[in-house]
Amino acid sequence: MQTLIKHSERFWYMTPVDLTDRPILGAVVGDTHTLLIDAGNSVSHASFFLEQMKKHGLRAPAMVALTHWHWDHIFGLPALEGIVSIASEATKQGMEKLMPYAWDDASLDERVAQGIEISFCAEAIREEYGDARDIQIVLPTLTFQEALTLDLGGVHVMLKHVGGDHAKDAVILYLVEEKILFLGDALYANLYAPTWRMTPEETLRLLDVLETFDAHQIVWSHGEMVSREAFAEDCLALRRIAAISSDFPGNEEEITRSYAVLVNREINEEERELITFFRNGTVGR
Ligand SMILES: [Zn+2]
C-alpha cells in the first residue's frame, strides 16, 4: 500500500513499490510554488500522487524535476500536462532515445535479447501496465547542464548533475533549509550491464560529492528516507568495499574475507550484495 508521508510542512513523499519498481516521489512545498520530484513509472502512479496531494490540501505542483532517464522516473509525465518539467540535458538525451520504442511484450523481449533493455525493467513494466501499455515519452520543458537552484518561496532546492555508475545523467536534489538530500538512484549499481555492477572510482567520486551536503535526512528512491547516521554507515560500507575491491579486482572471495576482517563480524545481506556488485565492476582488471 502506497502512502503519502508528511515529513515536514515543506516535504512530503510517497512510499515506493517493489513489484512494479515504483520509486519514491517527493513534493517540496514552498510558499509560492510546489515542486514534484520525479514523475513516476506510469500515468496511474503520477495521478495517484496528485490525488493524494489534493486530499491532503497541498497546492498543485508548478514544476517537476526528474532525477534520471530511467522509465520508472519518467513514464508518469503525461499525467503532468501543463506542469514545467526540469531535467539535466543528459537526461533529456536519454529520454529521446526511448521515443522510437514500442512497449508490447514482443518489442520488450526483442530489446532484452539485444541487450538494450534489461529483463528486470521489462518484468516491472509488465507488472505495472498489464496488457494496456499506452506509454508516451514526454520530453522535459527546461534543461540544465550542471546545476540549478529553485526558489520555491521559503525553501530552496538545488539540483546537481552528479552521474555515477547507475546513470550517467543522474541528478540529486538538495532541499537547503530542510537539509534533505534526495539521492534518486544515483548511488545504486549499474543495472544496464550483463551483470549488475559498481566501480570503485565512480562510487568514491560520488560519495565525495554527496558528503559535501550537510544533509540530515537522505532519500533512497527505491528504499526509504534515512537519518544522516544511517547514511554515514552506508557510505562507510561503500567506501570500504570499494577500496578493497580495488585491491582485489574481481576476486569476490578475497574481497569478502578482507571486508569481514576489517569490520570484525559476519557480513550482512546488503554488504554481500554490494561485494558482488564491486566484484562484477572490477572483474577482468
Ligand atoms: Zn534508475
Give a short synopsis of this structure:
The chain is of the alpha/beta class and 285 residues long. The protein contains nine helices and 13 strands.
Question: Could you explain the architecture of this structure?
Answer:
This protein has 285 residues and is of the alpha/beta class. The protein has nine helices and 13 strands. The chain has helices spanning 43-55, 71-74, 89-98, 105-114, 119-129, 200-210, 228-247, 252-263, 269-282, and strands at 4-6, 11-14, 25-29, 34-37, 63-65, 84-88, 142-144, 147-151, 156-161, 171-175, 180-184, 217-220, 225-227. A seven-stranded mixed sheet has the order 1-2-3-4-5-6-7. α6 runs antiparallel to α7 (228-247), α7 crosses α8 and α7 packs across α9 (269-282). The protein binds zinc ion. Zinc ion binds at residues 68, 70, 166-167, 185. Zinc ion binds next to loops.
Hetero ligands: zinc ion
- Largest beta sheet: what is the strand line-up? 1-2-3-4-5-6-7
CATH superfamily of the domain at 4-99 and 137-228: Ribonuclease Z/Hydroxyacylglutathione hydrolase-like
Instruction: Quickly give the CATH architecture of the domain at 4-99 and 137-228.
Output: 4-Layer Sandwich
Number of helices: 9
CATH class of the domain at 4-99 and 137-228: Alpha Beta
Residues in helix, %: 25-40%
CATH topology of the domain at 4-99 and 137-228: Metallo-beta-lactamase, Chain A
Strand content: 15-25%
The count of β-strands is 13
